[in-house]
Design goal:
The protein is built from four helices and seven strands, in the order βαββααββαββ. The chain has 167 residues and is of the alpha+beta class. The protein is globular and about 45 Å long.
Length: 167
């Protein structure tokens, strides 16, 4: 597959998934098959899978497509849903998912980093204080353009996605 397509409008999905410990090898094989199926969809640029690390307990899958429309077609496809139905036996809870789009190409290109923090409800105030301190420190670096923190979407979520922009 060529990655020389119009990447100015590229879209990326970042999916985190906890996997049952005794099912990790099966999950990795299943995920490889799912990624191979994605390659047949229009606009596919690539897919990566990363196993958990001591700092990141989830398996992370990254899908890249040449547009948000093509990424959404894959994310909402019957093919993917069929795979997810089969793969549910490997999952230890629901997945997290973020979609990032580069939009249109800028004369001053930005780098965007999306980070998701799981925060215990009793530690939200401490997390927000820490986040404020981090923004103050980051703002000292040349090229820093800002940060945006999003509150959890639903009352049961403990995830705070944030975007950091720099050039």
């Amino acid at each position: 597959m060529s990655t020389e397509k119009n990447v100015a409008a590229a879209a990326t999905a970042i999916i985190g998934q906890k996997v049952l410990p005794e099912m990790e090898q099966e999950y990795e094989s299943w995920q490889g098959d799912l990624n191979a199926a994605a390659a047949y969809y229009p606009g596919f640029l690539g897919a990566e899978i990363s196993p958990p690390t001591p700092l990141q307990p989830d398996w992370v899958v990254v899908y890249r497509f040449d547009s948000v429309a093509h990424l959404q077609a894959w994310i909402n496809s019957g093919t993917r849903q069929t795979y997810l139905d089969v793969g549910a036996k490997y999952f230890d809870g629901p997945a997290t998912q973020q979609v990032v789009s580069s939009g249109t190409q800028s004369l001053d290109p930005l780098v965007t980093v999306v980070v998701t923090h799981r925060v215990h409800p009793n530690q939200v105030d401490d997390f927000l204080d820490w986040q404020h301190h981090m923004v103050q420190e980051e703002s000292r670096f040349e090229g820093f353009r800002g940060t945006e923190l999003f509150r959890p979407i639903c009352a049961t979520s403990r995830e705070f996605p944030g975007a950091r922009l720099s050039r």
